[in-house]
Amino acid sequence: MTARHEVGVALYTGQGGDLRDAPALAAAAEEAGFDSFWVSEHHGIPDGYLPSPLVLLAALAGATSRIRLGTGLLIAPLHHPLRIAEDAAVVDRLSGGRLILGLGLGYAEHEYRAFGVDGAGRGDRLEALVPMLRRAWTGEPFSAPELGLHDVRVTPPPAGRIPVWLGGYAARAVARAGRVADGHLVGRGEPGVIDDASAHLGPVRDPAEPGFARAVIVTVALDAPGGGAESARTGFAAQQRMYESIQTGREVYAGLTGTGTGTGSTADGGLLQGSIDEYFQVSGSAEQVVRGIDAVFDRLSDWAEVHVVLRVLFPEPDPAVQLARIRTLGRGVLPRLAHRTAPLTPR
């Protein structure tokens, strides 16, 4: 089995800074040797969370030349399926075939209300969306009556075959990714979450099969010069409090993580798990971070294509701290990883 092991940078969300900083961060990640750069999506969040990931990736395409650009995740039901197909094709062409389209269902009820979208049957619509996108990207006329599309066409087509990855924690969501997508992505790279996904993917997908990606976002704090650990912890704590305030009452992580159902209260400004350190999957010195990332690769050693995406960008007011962290990880961590393969050229 030829392994493909890559390491990316995540998640640019736009909070606590200027969106114009994003191109420099993506360029720094590329220069540092990372394989991918990821942005995310939320709506109506007071702290300025990024609402338009594909728009931002179009800007990042012009600031980079090799690194792959991913949505982690685009909340698919909030967007018209034809618009997703068209915008993704444009970003892929602008980037020379570097887009990874990560799709998910989201969990914030206020977002569905804002867009006037009924959440009922959203999982089935997502499952129908993936084959529809592949037909759309041929550039030929097609119909997808299950999504209300009849004799439509997407032009221009993308530069290549855009990989579609699906997120999710629940058994049904994970199995869906195995059946219809090119990869499965989870946003909390905790051992129990990874193992649970493996249990649901194994029956529907051969781990040795090339072309299917296991992607895990691992939240990292580097306690070393250049790591900006104090800034990272402060920014992430503020972001996590926001997440938990909108997750209340929702089964966000399928009961697999320490935050459980998200039914606790953060009205007092605290975190459900107490210290923010409980939310980092990997932390410590450069040596400890290397061991922690390699341990994630070890956990997925049966899978041919593994992407470990390091969540190292947090809502921080000073972009210089983030730039230094990316460069420090590029110098002190990436070259020491036992499992990482050489960067690949775009499709």
From TrEMBL:
The keyword Flavoprotein applies. This is Alkanesulfonate monooxygenase SsuD/methylene tetrahydromethanopterin reductase-like flavin-dependent oxidoreductase (Luciferase family). It comes from the Bacteria. Residues 6-297 form the Luciferase-like domain. The keyword Oxidoreductase applies. InterPro entries: Bact_Lucif_Oxidored, Luciferase-like_dom, Luciferase-like_sf. It comes from Pseudonocardia parietis. Belongs to the bacterial luciferase oxidoreductase family. Keywords: Flavoprotein, Monooxygenase, Oxidoreductase.
